[in-house]
């Protein structure tokens, strides 16, 4: 009789463990750099962020209908993060709804930034260009709004009007 009870307890434990959802394929998409998307097998309707740790980031929430975690600061191309779900000091589950896992790599799908940091400004620019060539040059106002440290702006000689009347020779 004791054997039967232990077999039933063991079978119940295996069945309970097997029914826990499994998260996989963690990834960062370029469209939302503050999210970590994942695939899921099983029901995660009650999932919380408890116990999840992302290297270098702070988790701020979880969306169980679209399957992603949010983080406090967006990822960049250079981020190479991992995610894990740990255990308490007594080896019990931190998030009993999930199987614990350690150091799953988060695939970073953010494209490499352009190496070309040159932009062009001309008096004939109409606005809305990307500034990467004379044909798609920025206006002087666009250059002032979009330039960042390390960028080189080539300003073509001419008379510029707009914010100020400025002539560059």
Structural description of this entry:
The structure is a single chain. The strands form 4 sheets. The chain has a 5-stranded mixed beta sheet, with no helix packed on it. It is elongated and about 75 Å long. The chain is an alpha+beta fold. The relative contact order is 0.13. The N and C termini lie far apart (99 Å). The protein has 2 helices and 12 strands, in the order αβββββββββαβββ.
Topology:
Blueprint: H1 2-18, E1 22-29, E2 32-41, E3 52-54, E4 59-63, E5 68-71, E6 82-85, E7 101-105, E8 107-108, E9 118-121, H2 140-146, E10 152-155, E11 158-160, E12 166-168
Parallel strand pairs: 1-8, 9-10
Antiparallel strand pairs: 1-2, 2-5, 3-6, 4-5, 6-7, 11-12
Globally, the shape reads: elongated
Q: What is the CA-atom radius of gyration, in angstroms?
A: 27 Å
Gap between N and C termini: 99 Å
Quick one: how many beta strands?
Answer: 12
Order of helices and strands: HEEEEEEEEEHEEE
Task: Report the structural category.
Answer: alpha+beta
What level of helicity do the residues show?
Answer: 10-25%
For the largest sheet, list the strands in their spatial order: 4-5-2-1-8
């Amino acid at each position: 009789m004791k054997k039967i009870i232990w077999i039933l307890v063991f079978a119940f434990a295996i069945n309970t463990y097997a029914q826990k959802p499994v998260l996989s394929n963690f990834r960062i998409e370029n469209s939302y750099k503050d999210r970590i998307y994942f695939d899921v097998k099983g029901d995660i309707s009650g999932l919380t962020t408890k116990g999840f740790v992302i290297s270098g980031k702070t988790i701020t929430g979880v969306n169980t209908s679209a399957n992603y975690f949010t983080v406090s600061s967006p990822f960049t191309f250079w981020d190479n993060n991992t995610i894990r779900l740990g255990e308490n000091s007594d080896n019990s589950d931190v998030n009993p709804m999930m199987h614990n896992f350690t150091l799953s790599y988060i695939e970073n799908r953010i494209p490499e930034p352009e190496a070309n940091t040159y932009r062009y400004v001309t008096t004939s620019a109409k606005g809305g260009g990307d500034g990467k060539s004379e044909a798609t040059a920025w206006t002087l106002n666009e250059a002032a709004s979009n330039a960042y440290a390390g960028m080189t702006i080539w300003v073509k000689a001419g008379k510029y009007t707009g914010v100020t009347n400025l002539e560059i020779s």
